[in-house]
Structures are given as structure tokens and as C-alpha cells.
Design brief:
- Helix content is 34%, strand content 37%.
- Strand 1 and strand 2 form a beta hairpin.
- The chain has a five-stranded antiparallel beta sheet.
- The chain has two domains: 34 residues; 92 residues, OB fold (Dihydrolipoamide Acetyltransferase, E2P) (Beta Barrel), CATH 2.40.50.
- It has 127 residues and is α+β, with helices and mostly antiparallel strands.
- It is flat, with a radius of gyration of 18 Å.
């Protein structure tokens, strides 16, 4: 590889990550703006092992299983893709779902809850 072409691969990978970030951000923003807000409940919490970045031990990530009723009366019970949320089984939550695809939802969190989750994810990442 020549010096002139060495920067192409890192630049290309960087662009892929930037595009993926904006696509995900758009999806979440769209759901928050256009989603239907309902109350749900944490039906269960599933734990999955994740590899730690800085040690040989595995960390546990929690994924809430959410149950709610759509405005059309359909019951949805599905594991969220939001990990590390500081909630417990039976807790009531607010969420927004896509009316065209109710299994696409996001749990709404207040600012204090958000920073608690972020801190916990960072701590698990460092283990």
C-alpha cells in the first residue's frame, strides 16, 4: 500500500460509522416524534453475557421485556434492544411505538434515568 492510499481505508470505515450513526439517530428521532405514547410494564428482565473490553471476565447486560397494549387493542410482549436500563420487573414505564410496526418501540426515560444508564453501561464496558 502506498502512502497516498493508506488513508482511504480508515476514511471509508469512518464514513460508514458516521452514516450508521445518523441512520440510527434518525430512526430514534422519528420514533420519538411520530410514535404513539402508551404506558407499559416491565414484564421480565433478561440477562445476557457480554465480553468485557479490558478484562477476561464477562459482564452481564440486562434487557427489559416490555408488555403493552396498542391503541388498536393488540398486546405486544417483546424484549427491548435498550440494555442497561435501571428498571425492575413489574415497573410501569412510558414508551413510544411505531403505529405501522408496534414491535418497534422505545422506552422513554427522564434525564436522571438516562445518565444512570449511561454510567452503568460505561462501568460494564470497563470491567
Amino acid at each position: 500500500m502506498t502512502l497516498e492510499t493508506e488513508w482511504i481505508i480508515p476514511l471509508g470505515l469512518g464514513l460508514v460509522f458516521i452514516i450508521a450513526y445518523f441512520v440510527k439517530s434518525y430512526s430514534v428521532d422519528n420514533l420519538l416524534k411520530n410514535g404513539v405514547e402508551v404506558e407499559g410494564v416491565i414484564f421480565d428482565v433478561e440477562w445476557e453475557s457480554t465480553e468485557s473490553t479490558f478484562s477476561s471476565s464477562n459482564a452481564q447486560a440486562s434487557y427489559p421485556v416490555v408488555r403493552f397494549v396498542t391503541n388498536e387493542g393488540t398486546w405486544i410482549t417483546k424484549k427491548s434492544n435498550q440494555s442497561g436500563i435501571l428498571i425492575k420487573q413489574g415497573q410501569k414505564i412510558k414508551l413510544k411505538y411505531n403505529p405501522e410496526n408496534p414491535e418497534n418501540f422505545i422506552i422513554q426515560m427522564d434525564l436522571l434515568h438516562f445518565f444512570g444508564c449511561w454510567f452503568r453501561k460505561f462501568w460494564l464496558w470497563c470491567l
